[in-house]
Every structure is written in C-alpha cells, then in structure tokens.
Amino acid sequence: MTPDWQQIRGEFPALANWTHLNTATFGQLARRTTDAVAKHFARRDELACWDFVSWYDDADRIRAAIARLIHCDGDDITFVPNAATALAMLLNGLDWKAGDRIVTLEHEFPNNLYAPNLLQRLGVETVEVEWERFYDSIDPRTRLVVLSSANYTTGFIPPLEEIGTFLRERGVLFYVDGTQSVGGLRFDCARAKPDVLAVHAYKWMLSPTGAGFAYVSPQLRRQLAPTVVGWRSHSDWRNVDQLHHGTPEFAERAEKYEGGAIPFPLVYAMGASVDMMLEIGPEIIERRVLELADQVRAAVRRAGGEAVSANSHIVTARFENRDPSHMARELKDRGILVAARRGLLRISPHFYNNEDDVAHLEAALPES
After folding, report:
1. Do 231 and 246 reside in the same domain of the chain?
2. Could you point out which of 128, 238, 268, 303 has its C-alpha 20 to 30 Å from the C-alpha of 316?
C-alpha cells in the first residue's frame, strides 16, 4: 500500500513555511516526536519521578525498535549523544600499539579525521585514501577502518557489505558512521556486519540534536573496555535499593557503555521517530527518498547545473561560474533550504518532501 505522503507531510510543522531540502544538515521533527518530550515532562510532574527505573524499561523498548530498523538485537544498542562520542568510545577503548594503522577515505566528515589523527601521540598512523585505492591500502598493520555510510559532501555510498566481508577476512575492525543515511536508506547490520555503527539521529532519523545510538557487535563487546564508568556500569544496577559498591562487574549488553543516566526526553523523541519509520516501512522510505533525489538531479540539469552525485539520496551539484554558498543564501531568502559544502550545492530531500518542493527549487535555481 502506498502511504498517504500528503498526510505524513502534514505531521511536520516546519514544512508549512519552508521548502526544506536540507535533511543532510538537519532533519525536521514530526509532531509525535516533540509530543513524546512533552509527555515525558508531564509524567515527571504527575508522578514526581518515583517511577524512574521504569523509564529504563521504555528505553529498552526503544532499543528493540532501533534494532528492528537496522537488523540486530536490542542488546547490541547503546545510546550516545552523537557519533563523535561513539567513535571516541571505540578509539579510547582499544589497546593501541605503535605502528597500528587506521584507514579512512579522503574528504571524510571531520569526526572521522580529527579523532584518529590525535592517536599519532601513540604512534598510530591514520591514512586517507581515494576510494579507488581503498582495498590496496589495507595492509597487515591496518587495525581499523573508519567510514561514513554516505559522504557528507559528495553523497558517495561505499559498498559496506563488500567492505565488511573484506575486512573480516583480514581481522580489521570496521567503524561506520551512519548519521548521513540511516533513516533515509536501509541499513542491515546482519549483512554489513560493522563492529560499530554510530548514528546521530538529528538528520535522517528526524530526532533532536543529542539523540543518538551506536550498535556494538557482540564480538567487539568482549574486548572493548568501557571508558565511561558510572552507577549503571555494574550489571545489577537496577537494584537501586542496594547499589553495588566496589569494582563494577560489566554486563554483556551494549548499555554497559552508557555509564550513567541517559537523556530521556531525547531518547523518547528518537523512539517516536523510529516508530514512525517502522510504521511507514524502511523499504518504502528508501524508495521514496531515492525517487525524490532523482527528480532533484533532473531539475538541476534542466536548470543548467551538473549533478555530481549519482545513485545517492544526497544530490550534489555544480553550476559553472556560480558560488554555491551564495546560491544557498539566495535560495534561503526565497524560503528554500539547501546547503553548500566544499564547492558544491547540496540538496537532500526526505520522505516528507514532494514534487512541489522540487518544482519550487527548479524555478528558483536560475535566479539564485
């Protein structure tokens, strides 16, 4: 059954005033998502927080929903405030040795360049390579590969399942930042088999900033030490009347990486967005997003531009002798939100967009 896209669009208040084609920068919030925050605060007022332990039962239900979205087990999910925190959790939890190598692609998101490069103090080398040289760059010293599921500038989508198989055969850890695609495109942990998938949910998962999660594989959890330790680190932390004193005994679940309390208003908001996506269907969402991206590429070409990205949900375009930053500002003044990144105009529709949005963009492009 085809969803009623117009009805779904009506759930996003910001779209009444803006042609928002900029999900790769910020996704918009549905009413149910903001309502989930209000309901949590109302519950606090009603019950004075005496039921706070049961909030974690809700959190586990949200973990399970996320697991259904990305094809894993709820025990594999830990909540994080952003992808940078998840990457730090991985980098700081491993026992690095001088001569170890980290490989990433050139033009990666700064998270994936800054943090690995700081390990130079330990003698760890970080290598940025072109995609065409990626497989040849993996050598016996390579310990970790850090990639985005979609490049934030070009929209390039690496073949993650193929990469995952290649790396597993060589004993190389695989970190994927899924922030720039999960929620718009399907992701299958059971097939790609990353060691860590990190998602800051404020883009394609349509959640507030600060809401995020990481998948941590069972195999990695057996060797990755928690670097944040707090009252929830001990496996019996729910026994709040008699909290354990002394060295914590860590559980097997990925929640052991959370340490302390989690930001419940944001987690409830993210849970509402995940439920919405599961109701619509990840396959249906992906098909709609890619259809709209194809329409945007065609509009760019008709407006005299060159569509740089192909087969991606993120459309990047080049217009001869025109500054994309200036174009983005001009479009914003016309109520159309896009972005400029590293010399390209970036346009990123989600399932809440429609053909009228694309037509509005196409009409404005020659004048921007």
Report:
1. yes
2. 128
| Cα 347 from Cα 341, distance rounded (Å) | 10
* Range of the structural domain that residue 327 is part of: 5-29+281-367
As for how many domains the chain has, the answer is: 2
* DSSP strand pairing (142-148 vs 173-177): parallel
Residue 39 lies in a domain: no
Are both 238 and 92 inside the same structural domain? yes
pTM equals: 0.95
Q: 250: which DSSP letter?
A: B
Q: Three-class SS string for 184-249? A: CECCCHHHHCCCEEEEECCCCCCCCCCCEEEEECHHHHCCCCCCCCCCCCECCCCCHHHCCCCCCC
Structure token digits, residue 244: 């354990």
